[in-house]
Write a structure and sequence with these properties.
Layout: E1 10-11, E2 18-19, E3 24-25, H1 34-39, H2 45-57, E4 62-64, H3 73-84, E5 93-98, H4 107-119, E6 126-129, H5 138-150, E7 157-160, H6 164-176, E8 181-187, H7 200-207, E9 210-214, H8 229-233, H9 237-243, H10 247-264, H11 268-278, E10 284-286, H12 293-301, H13 309-318
Parallel strand pairs: 3-4, 4-5, 5-6, 6-7, 7-8, 8-9, 9-10
Antiparallel strand pairs: 1-2
Helix pairs in contact: 2-3, 2-12, 3-4, 5-6, 6-7, 10-11, 10-13
Length: 323
């Protein structure tokens, strides 16, 4: 079946690839494998099938994954779910990432065929360098990526977690090859607005690079569930230790999210994501993850309402300590 066609589309950077302002983050489909898998639920293929079906039915047209998410398990699970849903390649946008840790740029052409195999006929519309921790320079990595574009193995190139200097170098290297830098995937939420103060946002605007916001819900804090005393008691001890010192400072912001959500008959999480994809114009898109069907429905629902200028400004003011 075809995805819902009503959601707006945004171009990824200066490419001709168009996505909805919200995509589906695939890190929770790691299958218990690798570092990500240890921290994520081990979902069955049937559960993943249903999450992706609901995502597509809600009008979202793209999915973000990575080599690191279970060493290909997420990619394979996504491809299988898309097949089950009857989705053709031209009906969905797929983004995935190469992991540079302890590797050189020479690994990029050596491992691309694994990505292609795991995605089982779904084209890699966007291929990103997952972080700047490789042994090669941004220039060498971008040259290797450009070679893949020229070979027809990927459609566009992006980076993830690159700072201003690294992003500029990547952009310039691709420009020399006649290609745009499509995206920089970075952490961004109402609880982490550092890209607005460290130059990444301004540089992305200057270069025409789209920013993909990961952890758009502040690792769950913006849902408000951890601020509920009864629900907090059920949180595992290790998670409570991670949250220590974050609950009270964020409470005024979460209370405002709850108040605004009530007026729109939506959830605090939906308000938080809606603010994120609208406050800076069309330069920011977001990729909330989903380990349950209700999360997928919630993400799609974040596109269904409009915050007032006053509501946008209130959330801006309350989240300014996180700039």
């Amino acid at each position: 079946m075809a995805p819902n066609k009503t959601a707006a589309r945004i171009r990824l950077g200066q490419t001709d690839i168009e996505v909805t302002p919200i995509g589906l983050g695939g890190n929770k489909f790691s299958g218990g494998k690798g570092l990500y898998g240890l921290a994520m639920p081990d979902l069955s293929q049937a559960e993943i099938d249903e999450i992706i079906q609901v995502t597509l039915d809600g009008g979202i047209n793209w999915i973000d994954t990575a080599e690191m998410y279970g060493f290909g398990h997420s990619e394979k699970a996504i491809a299988s779910a898309l097949r089950t849903a009857g989705i053709n390649d031209d009906q969905v946008v797929i983004a995935t990432k190469w992991m540079p840790l302890f590797r050189t740029a020479g690994n990029i052409p050596r491992t691309i065929d694994k990505r292609i195999k795991f995605l089982d006929g779904y084209v890699i519309d966007l291929y990103m360098v997952h972080n700047p921790l490789g042994f090669s320079s941004p220039e060498a990595e971008m040259d290797a990526m450009a070679d893949l574009v020229e070979a027809g193995k990927i459609r566009s190139v992006g980076v993830s977690n690159f700072n201003v200097e690294q992003m500029r170098r990547a952009h310039q290297a691709l420009e020399r090859r006649g290609l745009p830098l499509a995206v920089n995937q970075v952490e961004y939420s109402l609880l982490n607005r550092k890209i607005e103060s460290n130059g990444i946002l301004d540089t992305a605007k200057e270069l025409g690079v789209t920013l993909i916001a990961w952890a758009p819900l502040g690792s769950g804090l913006l849902t408000g569930k951890y601020h509920d005393p009864e629900r907090y008691k059920q949180v595992p001890f290790g998670r409570r230790m991670m949250l220590r010192g974050k609950l009270e400072p964020s409470r005024p912001l979460v209370d405002a999210l709850k108040e605004i959500a009530s007026s729109h008959d939506v959830t605090p999480a939906q308000v938080a994501v809606n603010w994120l994809i609208n406050f800076q114009g069309e330069i920011v898109v977001a990729i909330p993850g989903a380990s349950k069907v209700k999360h997928a429905k919630e993400s799609a629902g974040a596109l269904s309402f409009t915050l007032s200028d006053e509501e946008m400004a209130k959330l801006d003011e309350l989240s300014r300590p996180y700039l």
